[in-house]
Amino acid sequence: MARVKKPRGRAKVAGRKTEAQAPSAALPPRKEVTIAAAKGRPMLTWVGKRPLRHVVAFPAQHVETFDPAGDAAKRGGALWKDWPEAYPRGGLLFHGDNKEVLAHLLANGFRGKVNLIYIDPPFDSGADYVRKVSLRGPKGSVKLGGEGYTLGEQLQYTDIWTNDNYLQFMYERLLLLRELLAIDGAIFVHVDPRRAHHVQSLMDEVFGQEAFQNAIAWKRSPFAGSSKARAQRYPANHDVILFYSKSDSFTFHHDYSEYSAEYLTRFKNPDDDPRGPYRLTHLKSYSKERFEQWKKEGRLIPARTPGAGWSYKQYLSESKGVQADDFWEGIGPEAEQEWEAAGSMWSDINLDNPMANVRTDYPTQKPEDLLQRIMSCCSNPGDLVFDCFIGSGTTAAVAQGLGRRWIACDINKGAIQTTSKRLQGIVQGQIADAGKAKQASLPDADEPDPLPPPAQLSFAVFRVNDYDLAIHHEEATQLACEHVGVTRTRTDSYFDGVRGKSLVKVVPFSHPLTLLDLEQLKRELEARPQEERGVLLVCLGKEPAADAWIDDWNRLRHGKDAVNRIEVVELRTDPKYGKFFQHQPAKARVKASRKKDGALVEIEDFISPTVVERLQAEAGLLKPKIDDWRAMVDCVLIDADYDGKVFRIGLSDVPEKKTDLVSGRYELPAPVGKTIAVKIIDMLGEEVLVALHLKE
C-alpha cells in the first residue's frame, strides 16, 4: 500500500464560529444505557472491581460550530444516511468526562457505528493526561483515592492513579468503547510497557482473547535514555499499542515500506529477462499446478548441484515492499543513510519528540505518521474514527486529512481549544486546496497518490454535563428536560412538560428554588381547580425554607391518589439525577492605578468555580483548601493599549516551573487615557478578561 502523505497547503481562509441551540427536538429523553457484561478470560481482579451494568446518559449542549463553507447542510448520501438527525453532518468534538460522553453517544444513535477507535489513555499518571499536572505552587498536588470521581476536568493531580483506581477507570471505559465499536471495527490502545500487561488482560476480558490481533512495539526515540536510566537496567524506549478487533471480520490493509538500497542490489537481470530485475529464491513448498505454471512462464531455475532443489525468479516489479510487522521504528532523517547502509529496514513514522510535524505543546503528543499508519490499515475513506482522549487533536487531524469522519472528546478544556484551532487550520487548507484543484490542469505524474476527498468540511463542539446555563431559559429548560426525561408541552404558559402522570416546572437556573417560586406554583394550581396531577419541580438548588414549605404542602396530600403532590429534583444533589454540572465562569478582581509615567496593575483575587467544584467533587468529605488564588492560574497576559477588539500581548507572566506562581502585581508603561486589558488563564485553559480604564 502506498504511503499516505499528509495534507498540504493550509491557506488562511476566513471561517466563522457561531453559537447554536442545543440539539433538542431529536434527542430522546434521559435514560440509563445498558452495558453488556464482560465475558472474556482471563478475568483480572483488583480491589474495588465493579461491573458496569448501566450508565446515565446526560444531554449535550451545542456551543460552537465551525462551518466556513456551509458544508454541514450539504452533506448527504449513503455515507450519512444513518447519522443521528440531532447532530450536524460533520466532525463532533465533545468537552466532558469521556465516561459521560461515551454514555451520551450510546444513548443517541452511535452504538455499533464506530469503525476504528484509537486511544492514548493516561499511563497510570495524571502527568500525561493534560497539559499541566498540578495546581501551581510547591503544595499544588492533591492526592486522592477511590474511583467514585468523575475526573472532573482531570484537574492536574500528579498521583491520582493508584493501581486499582487505574484498572477500574480503564475497565469501565473499555466496556463502553466496545459498545460503540462496529462489528467489523478495530480498537488500538496505546499504553506504557509498565501497564501493557494489565491493560491487555482487561481487553482480553472485555473483547475476548480471540479478538487480540497484535501487541505492537513502537520505538519512540532513537536515543537510549539518560545515564540514570541506563545505570542498572535496559533503558525503556518503546510504547505498546494493543490491537483488538470486534469480530473475525474486520478491515485490514497491509502496509508496505520501501526496500533498503542494500536489498535492492540483490535484484539483477543477467539474462535480460523482459520482466526486469529479479532475485533467485529457493523453492521450498509448492503445488504441482503452481510448479507447472512457473515452469511455463520461465520462472524456474533447475538445481545447479544434485539435491539442491529448484529456485524461482522473484521479480522486483512484483514486490510491494517490506510488509510492516509488529515492530514499528521511528527515526530521524539524519539516521536514515546510516541505517540503510547497514541493510536495515526503517519506518517513516516520525518521532513524537522532537520530530513531530505539528507541535502543540502537549507532552504526549503523538506523530501524525503513527496515526496515519493505523488509520490507513484499519479503516476506509468515509469510516467513522473515534478518540476519547483527544489531547492535542492528532487523531481528529489525521482523520480529517484522510477523508474519514471523526468524533473526539476530552475532559480538559485546553485540549478542546487546541484541537479546535488545529482542525480549523486543516479545514481551511482543504477548502483552499479544493479551489486550486478546480483551476489546475492535468495532474503531475510524479505527484504521490492523491488523498481521498474530505468526508466533511465542518465540525461542531458540544458540552456534556458541564453546562453553560447563563443562557436563554428555553435552552436551559430543554437541557434539564432531556436529562430528567420530560416530554415538552409547548402550549402550556406555565408548566414546561409532563413526566408520567406529573406536570413539570423547571425553575430558572439563575436562582435556587425559593418560597416565591412555591407561592407562584400555589397560585397557578388554585387557578386550575380541575387539575389533579402531581407536580415535579426541577431546580439547581433549594433555599432551606423551601423544604419545610413542601413538607407542609405534602402532609395534607397523602395516598396514591393524592392531588397536586409536589416532588423536587435538585440537579446537583438528587440521588438519581444529581451530578448535573453548571459551568460557572471564572471571575477576577483587578485594579489599575497610575504610577509615575506608567501603571500599576494588581490582581486582588481570582476564583475558578469549576476548579473549586471539581476539587470538592473529587475529594468527597475531604474539603480541599486553596490558600492562594495564584495556584489556580496558569498565566497572566496584559495589553496596555486595548482597543476592545484585538488583544495584543505587551506583558506575559508565564511561570517556568509548575511549582512557581504568577506575580499578580505588575508595573508597565501605559499612556494616559488608554484601556488596560488583563487576561487571566486558569489551569484548565479558561480565560477571564478584565478591561480597566486608567485614571489620572
As a percent range, the share of helical residues equals 10-25%
Domain unit count: 4
- Rg over alpha carbons: 30 Å
Average pLDDT, all residues: 78
Tell how many strands the DSSP assignment holds.
30
Contiguous helical run count: 14
Percentage beta strand:
15-25%
Distance between the termini: 70 Å
CATH 4th-level superfamily of the largest domain: Vaccinia Virus protein VP39
CATH fold-type name of the largest domain: Rossmann fold
What is the CATH class name of the largest domain?
Answer: Alpha Beta
Strand order of the largest sheet: 1-4-18-5-17-16-6-7-9-8-15
- Ranges with pLDDT <50 over ≥5 residues? 1-28, 125-134, 140-160, 331-348, 350-357, 359-363
Shape: globular
The biggest beta sheet reads:
11 strands, mixed
In terms of structural class, how would the helical and strand content be classed? alpha/beta
Per CATH, the architecture of the largest domain is 3-Layer(aba) Sandwich
